[in-house]
Amino acid sequence: MRCRLLLLATALTFGACAPPAPRNTGVYLLVDTSGTYNKQVTKAEQIILFALSRLQPSDSIAVARIDTGSFTEKNIIAKATFDDRPSTANQQKRAFASRVEKFIDQSTPAPFTDITGGLLQAIEFLNEKHPGHKEILIFSDMKEDLAKGYVRDIPLDFKGFDVVALNVSKLRADNFDPREYLTRLDAWRTKVEKGGGHWRVINDLDRLDGLL
């Protein structure tokens, strides 16, 4: 009995010394710029501004474009970890919004769509930030089209991640056979959930309250 009490006291002591779990948020937004979907990027700005309005000091955010090969630092349009001081954080948010606006104005269509590469970059970025809550937003029709030589048939570790597909517009082929649209979304849901993450789709951009 005495040994049990000693073990319990030791466990409580170590538990009291454990650092508190982080409570900040990390967001990574992937913007599809391929083909005709590039015409939709102005809607992405609405989502980015909404995210900025919800994020707090110490939170992190990055916006990256999905193009031919998305697993590189050059795909990141803007990134920031907001200062603890609200006034400085607000300045950072304004600068961030300005960089995004410039990207939206100058965006050109990409020939391919490396969604998996973008997700790899998002996972790597958010894991390095160690936020308490990790959310990946994908603004895309979710149709992956890889350039020759790109291999993306790999498992992804989504443990601790919320993955949200936004504005998943239907392709011309989907209008002829809606099963293609449903199959495409189900394949991504399976990929995310198999990797331990949580998946959802939001197509009504006027109802973003569930984000963040």
Compact overview of the structure:
With 212 residues, the protein is of the alpha/beta class.
What is the strand and helix layout of this fold?
Blueprint lengths: L1 H16 L7 E8 L8 H14 L5 E7 L9 E6 L4 H21 L8 H15 L3 E7 L21 E6 L5 H5 L1 H17 L3 E5 L10
Parallel strand pairs: 1-2, 1-4, 4-5, 5-6
Antiparallel strand pairs: 2-3
Description:
The protein has 212 residues and is an alpha/beta fold. It has six helices and six strands, in the order H-E-H-E-E-H-H-E-E-H-H-E. Strand 1, helix 2 and strand 2 (60-66) form a beta-alpha-beta unit. The termini are far apart. The mean pLDDT is 90.
Count up the helices: 6
Along the chain, the helix and strand elements come as HEHEEHHEEHHE
The proportion of residues in beta strands is 15-25%
The helical percent reads 40-55%
Termini separation = 48 Å
Cα Rg: 20 Å
For the secondary structure, the number of strands is 6
Describe the global form: globular
Structural class: alpha/beta
Contiguous uncertain segments of 5+ residues: none
